[in-house]
Structures are given as structure tokens and as C-alpha cells.
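Hello K.,

You asked for the raw outputs rather than the summary table, so here they are, unedited. I folded two proteins back to back in the same session to keep the settings identical. This is the first:
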Amino acid sequence: MIAVRKFFSIFFLCLFLMYQVGYLGYYWYSTERIEDKWMSHVEITPDMKHVSIPVSLPYWNNQQEYRVTHGKIIINGEVYRKVLQKYANEAIHLIVAKDTDTEKLNLSIADWVRGMSDGESPNQGKSDLTKSVIKEYVSDKTTNWGAVERSFSNMIKTGHFPAPFKSNKFAEVTTPPPQV
């Protein structure tokens, strides 16, 4: 009986860990597969871009031809793969290809994490917060929520609150502060 309990507790602990951090293994495996794909074959296509990075490298000579290279570079927030490079006229000239596989992987992981988290989404605004505050303190019988929300937002913007909101709760304290 005890061995069965240990087995189930270890099994559920493993399930919990896979649920919480399993995406890290998937991400690592997928990035390795993408790297292997880029290392195994590179096709020169017309949609590749030429990028020049001005830099002075003291002991590098001008190169006549491009050489095969590997690596990532981010240009204007987009991920590109370096395919060919050469150093000429105090600049590194790169031929880069857009890396759609890494972009798709990053988007899928971001969507998965966003779906698993309980946090607020960036689309939720101030109006949702004021609506939730109002619903907690005002009864919902015959209440026009739009008007209440607008009036509450106006009170926040102008700083004019009704008397119950202006009361200072700390003024009611009659005991002295604690002595050290």
C-alpha cells in the first residue's frame, strides 16, 4: 500500500513538473532542430538581404569572396540567419535570410505561456479595473454601469470625491504610536 502511494506521488510530481517547466524542454529541443536544419543545408534565394555593418578590425584583410557563416542576428526586431559574410572596406558584409522557424517557435511558446498564466493580459485597460471596483461596492439592481463607470472615471480625473471617499481613516486613531 505504501509503495503504491509513493509511486503515485512521484508520478503526480513528475506530471506537475512537466506541466510547469515542460515547455523549456520543448523549446530547447526545437531550437536544436532548427539549428541542425540551418547547419545542414543553406539555399541561396533571391529574397535574402544584404547588410553592411561598418566596423574597423585591425588585423583583418579585405576578402574578395563571401564565406559561409552561421548565427542569428536581430534587425529591426526581426530574427535573421547569417548565411554568408565577408570583410571589405572596413565593414562586415552579410547576406542574411529571414528565420521564420525561430519566429514561429517564439510565438508559439509565448502563446502557450500566456495561456497557462493567470496574470492580466496587456489588453485589459483601466476601465475594466474601475468596473470591477464599482461592482464590488455598488448593488447591481437597476444600475446603469456605463454612467457609474463614467462618473467614477471623472472623479478620478478631477480629484473631486464625495464626502465618504474624502474621510481620512487615520484621523480616527486615538492611541499614540508604539514606543521603541
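The second followed immediately with the same parameters:
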Amino acid sequence: MTEIDVHLHVWDPARAPYDWLGPGLAPIDRVMRFPDVRPALRAAGITATVLVQAADHDADTDHMLDAARDAAV
């Protein structure tokens, strides 16, 4: 059976601005990539994900598309 995480965000503040992200959200106030979440996904038995934008602008869209292209759960 395929187990799907239907709402996964990745982000990289060096590639795109995220107005909602900041020191008040430690420990996630950092780059969040698929390799960062992959162990938790595998431990939960997740075999697929749906990537969702972390911000509504072209820079994040470009980052999201690159991340999707480079990742496999």
C-alpha cells in the first residue's frame, strides 16, 4: 500500500524570502530540504509526498520545482 504525506513544504531562505519564517520559529528557521525530512517520512512508512509551496511567489515556485526534481522519498 502507498502511504502519502499530502502536504509537505521545503524551503531555502537563501533562494527565496519566507515572510512567515523567523527566529520565533526555531528550530525550523533554517533550510528545510527533502534529506532533512526523509528519515521521518521513512520511519512513518510514507512512500510518496505532495509538495506544497511554502510561499506564494516565483522564487519559491522555482525552488519547489528544483526540489521536486531532485528528490525521491
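Residues 4-70 form one domain.

Happy to rerun anything if the numbers look odd on your end.

Regards,
P.
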